[in-house]
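cron nightly-structures :: item 1 of 1
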Amino acid sequence: MRAFLIRWMVTTIAVWIASAMGFLHFSSDRCLLCAALVLGIISAIIRPVLMFLSLPFIILTLGVGILIVNALLLMAVSGLVPCFHVDSFGHAFFGAIIISFVSWVLSAFLRSENGRMRVQVIRRDEGGMKQAKGRVIE
C-alpha cells in the first residue's frame, strides 16, 4: 500500500510540474490528485496492451511511439476527468514528455525491492568506485 501511495505522489508531482509549464490545466488540488490517480490506473491497465499492439510502430519510430502512446493516455485522462484539461495533442505530447522525465528522475531515488521502497544514495569511495547504500522506508 505504501509503495502505491509513493508512486501516486510521484505521478501527482509530475503532472503538477507539467501543468505549471502550461501543457495541462486543472481546477483544484483535488482534481490534480484525481487526474494523477486515473493516469496511474490507466497506465497500469491499458498502457501495456497499447504498447503490445503498437510494438511495430514503436520499433519503426525508434521509441518515439511510446511518447505518442503516453500522449494518447493523457488525452484519455482529460476526457475522463472533467476538471482536468489538455488543449491539444501537441500539449499532451509535451506534457507526456515532462511527466515521463519527472517520474523517471523522482523514481531514480526510490527503488522497489520485494514491495519495499528504498532511497538510493550513490557515493564514491577513496578508490573512485561507486557505492550505493539504501535505506528502507518502513
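cron nightly-structures :: done
The chain has one domain: 2-111.
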